[in-house]
Design goal:
The chain has twelve helices and eight strands. The chain has 257 residues and is of the alpha/beta class. The chain has a single domain, classed as Aldolase class I (TIM Barrel, Alpha-Beta Barrel), CATH 3.20.20.70. The longest helix is centred in the C-terminal third of the chain and has 20 residues. The protein is globular, with a radius of gyration of 17 Å. The chain starts with 6 loop residues before the first strand and ends with a helix. The chain binds 2-phosphoglycolic acid. The site of 2-phosphoglycolic acid (PGA) has 13 residues, from strand 8.
Length: 257
Amino acid sequence: MVKRKPIIAGNWKMNLGTVDEAVDLVRKLRPKIGSLKQVDVVLCPPYTVLAALAEILDRSRIMLGAQNMHWEPKGAHTGEISAGMLSGLCEYVIVGHSERRATGSVEETNAAVQKKLAAALEGGLTPILCVGESKSERDAGQTQSVIVEQVSVALGSLSAGDVQRCVLAYEPIWAIGTGAAASPVEANRVIALTIRGSIAKGWGEGLAQSVRVQYGGSVNPENIADFMAMPEIDGALVGGASLTPDFADLVLNAVGG
Ligand code: PGA
């Protein structure tokens, strides 16, 4: 069996964006989870605090990620940020989060997500590609087709080496921020059949087995171990539960204390 290193990422969304509050939380997390070797820990705060956190996380194993980026390297894109601007500050970038896709903007279509992935990889960042179905898509039995489309378009033209560098996150939209997480068994099945299945179709079973896939949607310190116990789930993308010092417990519970 392929050994995939677990990865737990905290997506702070539009929270803790002042230097004082961000530094305060990270100072509390660092002594507990700053030197873990068996799991990759990534914090994705607002852009405004990346530089300050990069400084205080120097020589810690906790890594940083951004929550979005544009595919162009520079230019007339008001309010956007490029891979080149991020690469000195962080190692990861979330791409295609459902809260961004929900804007319906041309910058968040599957085709745009593909361009962002390619630009992130080109810029030396590790993308965390989010995919997942809405409640109505799930109710209509479209989970599989929606996710196959998201994965195959986004990864579309990437080389096997680049696909291997990506992290994917299965985030059913109905489970995000609702307190109603997917069942671990169901998430495991979608990841195995649909997400790894799509990767296997394009790049072969071996590669599909080597890519890390997280689950996201109402993960907390109490339920994380149940997700980690699933063979296809390699970690979690955590929203609300990443905003307090209890995130350290979540990470520790993920790796068995
Ligand atoms: P949640 O968010 O953990 O608050 O449900 C997850 C996410 O949006 O990545």
